[in-house]
Amino acid sequence: MPIAQNPLSVEVTLPREEVALLKVEGYLDVDTATEFQHHLANQLHHGRRHFLLDLSQVPFMDSSGMNIILRVYQEARELPGSVHIISPTPAVRRILDLTGVSITVPVSESLDEALSRVDAQPEGPRTPDA
C-alpha cells in the first residue's frame, strides 16, 4: 500500500487581485496540513488579503486542517482581510459546526456567495490614521 493514499491537491486561482481561491481536494489532516499551509503562506506573501477555501472535495479534515484555517483567519484579520469556506462536504461541515469553527469562519455555499461576503466587508485602513 502506498503511504500517501489520499494525497492533497490544492489549485490556486485569483478571482480578483487581493482574493485567492484555493480549491482543496483530498484529506486535510496531519499528513497534508503542512502542504496546505505552504499554499496559504505563499498567497499571503504575494499580498492576498482574502482567502476563499473550496472544501467541496475534502472528504475528511482533522484538527490539523482546522488549526491551519484558524491561523490564516487570524493573520487575514490583521491585514485586514478575510477567510471564507466554500461548500464543505457534509463530514467536514459537521466538524466545523461541532468545533465552532463555522461560527468564526463564514461558510458559503458558492463562490459567488463568498465573493459577495468579501465585497460586503468594510475596508479598514492598512496603517493607523495619522
TrEMBL record:
InterPro entries, sorted: Anti-sigma_ant, STAS_dom, STAS_dom_sf
| TM ranges | none
What superkingdom does the record give?
A: Bacteria
Q: Coiled-coil region(s) at which residues?
A: none
Q: What are the STAS domain coordinates in residue numbering?
A: 17-118
Q: What Gene3D superfamilies does the record tag this protein with?
A: STAS domain
What Pfam families does UniProt report for this protein, alphabetically?
STAS
Q: Which NCBIfam families match?
A: ant_ant_sig
Extract the PANTHER family matched here: ANTI-SIGMA FACTOR ANTAGONIST TM_1081-RELATED, ANTI-SIGMA FACTOR ANTAGONIST TM_1081-RELATED-RELATED
Give the record's family classification: Belongs to the anti-sigma-factor antagonist family.
Q: What is this protein called?
A: Anti-sigma factor antagonist
**Source organism of the structure:** Streptomyces lancefieldiae
What taxonomic ancestry is recorded? Bacteria, Bacillati, Actinomycetota, Actinomycetes, Kitasatosporales
